[in-house]
Amino acid sequence: MCMVLAVVAGVAGLVTADRGIERRSAVVSGVPVEVVRPDGAEGRLPGVVVAPGLSASMQLMRGFADTLARRGYVVELVDLAGGGASRERLPDLGEGPEAEARLDADVDVAVRHLRTVPGVDGSRIGLVGHSMGAAAAVRYAGAHPDVAATVAISQGTMPFGKARPRDLLLVAGGLEFAGYRDGAVAGVRAAYPQGRAGVTYGDPRAGTARRAVIVGGAEHVGVLFQPRTHREVAAWFDGAFGRPGGASGAGIRPFQRAGSAMLLHLAAVLSFAAVASVLLGRPGGEGGGRTKVPLALALGAPVVAVLAAVGVVGLIPRMVLAVGIAGPLAGFFAVAGLLCAAVSLRKGGDGGRPWWRTVVSAVALVVLTVVSFAVPAQLGWAHAVPVGPRVWALVPVAVCAMVFFAGIELLCGGYSARAAVLIHAWTAAGALAGLGLAAVLGLVSWLVLLAAPLLAGLLVWQGVQAAALRALRAPVWVTALVGGALLAWPIAVTMPIG
């Protein structure tokens, strides 16, 4: 019943998300863009370009297009180099002059294109950026005084001039690292030394306005979905363009798309056991060979494996797969999985099924898992179709993830359902902690910390699937294959191309 409700609510949310607006996608000079405007709007409207952060895509920023379009703006979402549907590489994962030049060029393409869109008033253009995209927006607006207003969300600390950019709003989440919160206030104080959060300084009509906002209870990504963030952004552009502000909450549904997608993800998790049972059938016989390793070894081996993987991950080139940190992540999981498997090799049972049924079921479950992630993500919060080198990165990442999940299953063999879940959770949590340690020690890119919530969610998702397959006495290779696809697909499609 819960699964049905999640599907109905998720589908309804996505179907109604475009109500009152229209969207058109294009690729301009190699830069993917999507133009969003009020349905049936007349006259010349102000325009806003919206840029995502590192390892993100325009899908994550669609809430701002929805909010602003419903208030009478034409919005252009853009995928910057390295992210989303862009096939262009992002030098040095967004750091350094070469990367800045590449990002600034993409923003310039988007701004110039928006000015050519019918019905857009080219003299009234604003920018919104998040994280890396915020830094690019501030740089561009500072160099182009014809940009009337800029919103920088979670941009961190960077140099700000006193006169440029015009009308700058700086937003940070209350749960972000201190550098993001301090950077927002510092951006105001660069022009107004007495500046503090929550107060607007300067004159929007003269282009001298600055304001810092700290959104309580929000972290680096969550700040994008807070109603207060959207109210502040809409009010800022209304003030900068001299437009009458609408009702404070009019048209603001920042979490509708992403929330609906999450409900469909949840439905996939809840339905997996039933689908697997239909495909594989109930287990027959005893599925012998399930000799368990001692509990001390089942709990101790993951600790040793994770620490060894932390030591090895620093030796793997960050861009070995040309996709962000996919190479180091893959190597980390492979080393940890191999060491777990080394202490627990055993013969796995097949539940008394014909081999062909197991193979067909495994393929069907892999397809189901990929679709369950990719389709809702594409519609709601992330670009999920692999392009360019992402396609080729899928295979090695999937193989390494399979090794990791096979190692976990071998450790769990022979234990009760509850004990196996605990061993699985212990190993997965240890791997996540190990990756965090590697990032803190500088052995792997700090991008791992930003990807940690996604990795944690995927590991929980895989844990539910593994428990269901364990109950059906599916062979270890089936669980590993399905889990490998689940973990590899998001890593390959969301990490930046470098």
Automatic annotation (TrEMBL):
Database matches in InterPro entries: AB_hydrolase_fold, Dienelactn_hydro, FrsA_esterase
GO MF terms held by the record: hydrolase activity
Source species, domain of life: Bacteria
Hydrolase in keyword set: yes
Transmembrane intervals: 262-281, 293-316, 322-343, 355-379, 391-412, 419-440, 446-464, 476-497
Annotated keywords: Hydrolase, Membrane, Transmembrane, Transmembrane helix
Pfam families with a match to the protein in the record: DLH
Domain Dienelactone hydrolase: 35-152
Family: Belongs to the AB hydrolase superfamily.
Protein name as annotated: Alpha/beta fold hydrolase
